[in-house]
Amino acid sequence: MAKQLLGKEVNEALVANLLSRSDALKAKGVNPCLGIIRVGARPDDLSYEKGAIKKGADVGIEVKVFELPEDASREDVLATVDQVNADNTVHGVLMFQPFPKHLREYQQEICNRLDPKKDMDCLTDLSSAGVYQGRSDLGYAPCTPSACMEILDYYGIDCKGKSAVVIGRSLVVGKPAAMMLIGKNATVTVCHTKTVDTAAVCREADIIISAAGVLGSLTKEYVRPGQIVIDVSMNWNPEKITSKGKGGMSGDAVYEEVEPIVEAITPVPGGVGAVTTTVLMKHVIEAAEKA
User: What is the pTM of this model?
Assistant: First the structure.
């Protein structure tokens, strides 16, 4: 039976550390604050926002929401970004994506208007450059791959000299995760839809980070004993049996096949996703400390 790399345990350690740092900041007259810029009211955005407000309260971070209507113009959104940039009481900013359709052609312009020092989830080009150069002074890495690294660190998984495979090459998870693993001195291969025999490549790895976003794509043919599997994806699985009945979230891994073989694995839910919002708050605390 594989060791479960539980996000709850990582969370508890992070929250205790962040609450201590938040208290220290407040003792100096600094109240850490996250600004959320939201255009419209998509249900998934509202759900994440609610979770962020709760998590912020847990670690002593105020969350201010800057809400714009669904039909907000490019100029309206840019003006809001400028407002938040100029507000010294807001230390970090999360801007929900994707924007409504009429704004998507301006997406990169709007993102790059954000001060990289306040960019908590790697939306700006300069923040991305920081990830690829290994420079934390240029911004913050995306929260999801950062959560993967927090899990590896918490459980004492040393990446130095290890072979790692990242499945997926998105700018949100796959590519930054690969860069962050290189920063931990792993030897990294990135697999994607054009990779020939991904299963064979994965079997050679010591660490697998699966961010394909495809339910059941990581089967027993991809793994061997002794591996660490970090399953990033959250996929709707209509066949999953939960305490609430049929249907629930699953990762890329066919858990019942992979878990008995590998050394350790993150469950879904309860793994990477459980740590991501806490990492966002860690970035806010770091930004407040730097400010």
Answer: 0.95
